[in-house]
């Protein structure tokens, strides 16, 4: 018997359309290193999603200072657009050097519009590469975009921890498994990487090996993956800490896990374990909702 969820997504196709987030920031090189690795591995087309956030006068200005703020914001907007125009040729050249075919999608807009337009691009791709969100620093500006990608794109998102550069090849994959739709969705999105890994560890925390874990192992084995099922006791630790400790022990190059959350007042609220892993992991995460 196959895993009841993952079996719905049988038929592994290579990744042929990868999107990487570009913003001219200090973590761009890390994202591009993974984009280059995957584009080379799969012969994929590479799209650079170049976003520049324009100031939103409606959020920042009071009615009493609207006129003065409008002039200031117009000046800031012009500076941002000019800087983006200067950066765009360099970004296009970087993409060309990493993939056989590439293009640059540029969005200069308020954050709400960036999110909307980006999701349109991401829904017609195989994977989105971004920096791990919910950490302090300049990159926090893009947390709304990455959160929207996780919960609204319908595709997998590869989160690269700050400062992490891609290895020559992704050898070890850890699957943080639960018998849920989200975990199955993540496995389905990661299948092109799972089937190319030297080893795949299916990790369950505080659970006995159940039928779905065995089904998953058999399913992956049929696709040529070398699979081991690991049962880990949290022993007073958080589930996130248990997963990350296993990833370090196993020298995993990638963690695959479901992205859990719920909608509250039209905004997604990230589940506790998902948030903890995203904030603390030094290993890249492939997450799907």
Automatic annotation (TrEMBL):
Gene3D superfamilies: 3.40.50.12370. InterPro entries: Universal_stress_UspA, UspA. Pfam families: Usp. Residues 208-288 form the UspA domain. It comes from the Bacteria. PANTHER family: STRESS RESPONSE PROTEIN NHAX, UNIVERSAL STRESS PROTEIN HP_0031. Belongs to the universal stress protein A family. This is Universal stress protein. It comes from Phreatobacter aquaticus.
């Amino acid at each position: 018997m196959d895993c009841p969820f993952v079996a719905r997504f049988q038929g592994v196709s290579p990744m042929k359309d990868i999107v990487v987030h570009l913003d001219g920031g200090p973590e761009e090189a890390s994202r591009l290193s993974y984009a280059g690795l995957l584009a080379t591995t799969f012969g994929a087309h590479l799209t650079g999603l170049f976003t520049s956030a324009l100031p939103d006068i409606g959020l920042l200005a009071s009615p009493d200072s609207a006129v003065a703020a409008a002039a200031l914001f117009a000046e800031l907007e012009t500076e941002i657009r000019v800087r983006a125009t200067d950066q765009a040729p360099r970004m296009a050249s970087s993409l060309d050097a990493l993939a056989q075919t590439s293009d640059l999608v540029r969005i200069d807009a308020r954050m709400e519009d960036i999110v909307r337009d980006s999701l349109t691009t991401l829904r017609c791709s195989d994977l989105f590469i971004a920096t791990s969100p919910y950490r302090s620093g300049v990159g926090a500006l893009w947390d709304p975009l990455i959160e929207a990608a996780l919960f609204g794109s319908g595709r997998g998102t590869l989160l690269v921890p700050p400062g992490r550069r891609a290895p020559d090849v992704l050898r070890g994959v850890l699957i943080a498994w639960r018998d849920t739709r989200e975990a199955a969705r993540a496995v389905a999105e990661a299948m092109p990487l799972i089937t190319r890994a030297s080893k795949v560890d299916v990790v369950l925390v505080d659970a006995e090996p159940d039928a779905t874990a065995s089904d998953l192992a058999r399913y992956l084995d049929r696709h040529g993956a070398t699979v081991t099922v690991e049962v880990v006791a949290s022993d007073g630790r958080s589930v996130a800490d248990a997963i990350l400790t296993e990833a370090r022990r196993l020298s995993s190059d990638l963690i695959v896990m479901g992205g859990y959350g719920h909608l509250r007042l039209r905004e997604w609220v990230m589940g506790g374990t998902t948030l903890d892993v995203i904030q603390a992991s030094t290993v890249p995460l492939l997450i799907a909702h």
